Structure formats: structure tokens, C-alpha cells
Amino acid sequence: MTLSGIHVPLITPFAADGEIAFDALEDLARAALDDGASGLVALGTTAEVATLAEEERRAVIEICGRVCRERGATLTVGAGSADTRSTAEALRALKGEADAALVTVPAFVRPSEAGVLAHFTALAEQTPVPLVVYNIPYRTGQSVGAATLRRLGELPMVAGVKHAVGGVDLDTVALLADPPEGFAVLAGDDPFLSALLALGASGGILASAHLRTGEFAELFRAWRAGEVEHARALGHRLSLMSAAMFAEPNPTVLKGVLHAQGRIPTADVRLPLVPASRASVEAALRML
Ligand SMILES: O=C(O)C1=N[C@H](C(=O)O)C[C@H](O)C1
What's its job (predicted)? Predict the structure, then answer.
């Protein structure tokens, strides 16, 4: 499979009683695809996945899958833990449910790059769906350089990487200069989307694309079409808006904004997250 374009990792909206607001989730899913996203990501970090019970996770996958099937869009589902065996088991459960799985580099364990390669090699042998490696060292504590990413990209069931290293470093430039055939490099740090697209990234998985989704899709199209002046100006505007969404831990500011827009019933998050301050939400709203 070839992954490209803008993919929206959906938040999990909560009602006042703390339960998932499924209607609001479905509305967000439909709006993202209607406004130009190529796909949805269910159960990403933006979904507060660590706080969702098993039956809640299944219900989220069901809704996102139904909306994606209706629209012919790609559904990627977050699956992964610091344990190879249980990650393989979670992947097997995605057979027929997802087009791809977003699998985080094992967090906290810090297994070395050789361990990361061994983890994904074992998963690639067992998974029924293509894998997207989620490279996010500030959350996992494990960096993965361009040489290892290239080797991961050569594994038969690895379709791409969600690349979120907090900037445009030398490994990012080296990987994008020479990616393995058919390997999608997707921007995973919202403020750096435009810079990575300029370097040849295939798209992005971006929480802030809940907002101004059509402009994110236009940014992707414009870089692809080589409309540099237009893409650069649009990219600058969207990057600054994205930065405002990440002034406090994701997705707290985003939820504050979506609630202020009347798109979700509350801005509630589950502990250990706490709601964003009013000042951060108001600052983000001013950037829209
Ligand atoms: O859930 C995701 O996928 C994303 N998570 C990132 C994070 O919270 O660190 C941000 C990115 O926009 C998408």
C-alpha cells in the first residue's frame, strides 16, 4: 500500500458524564474526510488511547472504519506497546479492521536501534496489516537514525514512518534524500509538516488537521504540484496555527478549540491530562 496525503488522528470527545461522545466522534470523522483528508487514524496519542477501555477502543475502531469505508479512505489504527509479543497479538486482532497499523517504537525500555529493528522485524513477520513505524523519541526515549529507518523501510510489511523528531535534523534530511522504494515518510510533528513536504515527505499524520483540514490538504497538493510560493506562504500560516495547538500537552488545546467551536460537547480529557488553560485555548482560537 502507498500512504500519502493528510491523515487526521482523531481525538476522543467525552460527554459531561465522562463517556465517549460517539456522535461527535462520527461527525469529526466525516468532516475530516469531507474536507479533504486522505485518511483517519484511530487510537493515536491524540485519542488519549492509554485511557480508553478495551470496549471503548473497539467502538472507536468500528465508527472510524465505517466512515472510512463509506468514503473510500484509509484507516490506520494505533497498536503497540513496549512488548513485542503483545504488540503482535494486537496486530493480529486488526485483520479486516484496518488498512494499516501505527506502531510506536517501544517506549521507556530504550532497547537500542538493534532492538528496535528486531522488534519490527518480528512484527513484520506476523502482522496481517501494513505497519507504520511511529518514530517519536521525545515520547519513547529511543532515537532511531536514518540508517535504521531505511532498514525498517525495506521490511516487506512496513509501509512507512510517522516521523516526529521535533525538528528537521540530519537524519530526516538523509532519509528523505534516499527513502526505500514505496516507503512513505509522513510528518508527525505538526509545525514541521510544510518543511518535510518541501523535502519530499508523502504527507502527514497531524492532530491540528482537525482544524482547517482543507488548507492542510491544499498544502500537500501545492507542494506536490511544485507551487512553491503558494505552498511556502500557506505552510507558514498553518505551522504557526499548529504550534499554538501544542502550547500544552496534546490534545488539550485542540479539545478546547473544538469545544469553543461547538463541535464537541466538552473539552474534557482523562487523567493524567488536565484541560488546557483558557489563555492557551484563546491564543489558539486567534490563530484560526
Ligand atoms: O495521535 C497522533 O497520531 C499524533 N500525536 C502527536 C502527539 O501527540 O505527540 C501529535 C501529532 O499531531 C499526531
Answer: Catalyzes the condensation of (S)-aspartate-beta-semialdehyde [(S)-ASA] and pyruvate to 4-hydroxy-tetrahydrodipicolinate (HTPA).
Contact 21, 15 (CB under 8 A): yes
Q: Give the number of other Cβ atoms within 10 Å of residue 60's Cβ.
A: 23
Distance in angstroms (rounded) separating the CA atoms of residues 284 and 139: 23
Q: Tell me the whole-structure pTM to 2 decimals.
A: 0.97
199: containing domain: 5-226
- In angstroms, rounded to a whole number, what is the distance separating the alpha carbons of residues 1 and 130? 8
**What sign does the dihedral 67-68-69-71 (CA atoms) show?**
positive
Burial pattern 16-55, b for ≥16 Cβ within 10 A else e, equals eeeebbbebbbebbeebbebbbbbbbbbbbbbbbeebeee
Structural domain total, the chain: 1
| Predicted ipTM of the assembly | 0.95
Distance of CA 24 to the CA centre of its chain: 19
Q: Is 205 annotated as a binding residue?
A: yes
Q: 85 forms bridges with which residues in the sheet?
A: none
Pull the grid cell for residue 77: 489504527
Q: What is the CATH number of the domain that holds 122?
A: 3.20.20.70
Give a yes or no: residue 255 inside a domain: no
Nine cell digits for residue 246: 501544542
For residue 273, tell me if it sits in a domain.
no
Q: What is the pLDDT of residues 144-159, one digit of tens each?
A: 999 999 999 999 999 9
At 96, list the grid cell: 479486516
- Whether 40 lines ligand 1, by a CB cut-off of 6 Å, is no
Q: Cα(33)–Cα(73) distance, rounded to whole angstroms?
A: 8
- Answer whether 211 contacts ligand 1 (Cβ < 6 A): no
